[in-house]
Amino acid sequence: FGAETREGLLGELKNAITALTRRIHGVPTEGESEAQPVPKRLDEGVKEVRRLILVVEQCLFHGLRLEQFKGVFPFWPLLERLESTLNPPDYAFNNVVAAVAVVPVLRGPMGRSRGWVRQALNTKQLAHCVGGVLLKQPKYLTAFWKPHALCRSSGDKDGAELLVPLLESLQQFKFLVGVEDPELNHKPPWPLLAAEPPEPAAASFDSQQQQQQQADTSGGGGGWVPPRDK
């Protein structure tokens, strides 16, 4: 379960990177007879940049335990948690989180999660934040993502080990994507996630194990409750 979606996500990420590379080098993309003008800025006005960001979001958010966090999109609370608990602190990671936390138009976990992706791209820290921080937190990976999630699929042929090199390849680009955008507060279509079938009951996370994982992430026995929106 989930392998087809993971393969699709990684394939679409590769295609999006290829399309952006061709665009900035003035090479026609597949299906085009002439090359599009080379963009002066890699911002949200470039369709290939928009396509890339959309698939990066889907790769990171695939398989999040949305139903376990009482309607709160859990990715941003996890980032806040790591910012305050990493020991030793990771200043590159913390700086990306802090920069997004003070953006006034991003009013909730959804907007801040999507803003974080853009800020990490702009600062060339996305691969480090994902591969160097998020994927090295097995306790949190288990608590926040379902077993079939791309971020948890360690060792699989379509797994997380393939995601990080693709993210590292994005450092060749100088992104200037807007973060202060109220539209980020709204969930986009995310077609690759919408097409995934519901998780079978047999594959669902054992409730006792989940409760223990949430207790572990809180450092106590009451389970971790996502912080309220500021």
Tell me what the structure shows:
α1 (about 5-25) packs parallel to α8 (about 160-170), α3 packs across α5 and α7 crosses α10. This protein is mostly helical and about 230 residues long. The protein is globular and about 50 Å long. Helix content is about 50%, strand content about 0%. The chain starts with a helix and ends in a 12-residue tail after the last helix. It has helices at about 5-25, 45-60, 75-85, 90-100, 110-120, 125-135, 140-145, 160-170, 190-195, 205-220.
The biggest sheet, with number of strands, parallel, antiparallel or mixed sense and barrel status, is: none
Helix content: 40-55%
Order of helices and strands: HHHHHHHHHH
- Calculate the terminal CA-CA distance, rounded to whole Å: 37 Å
Shape: globular
Q: What oligomerization state is this entry in?
A: single chain
Tags for this model:
230 residues, mainly alpha, 10 helices, 50% helix, disordered C terminus
Describe, in short, the structure shown:
The protein has 230 residues and is mainly alpha-helical. It has ten helices and no strands.
Topology:
Blueprint: H1 3-24, H2 47-61, H3 75-85, H4 91-101, H5 109-122, H6 126-133, H7 138-144, H8 160-169, H9 191-194, H10 207-218
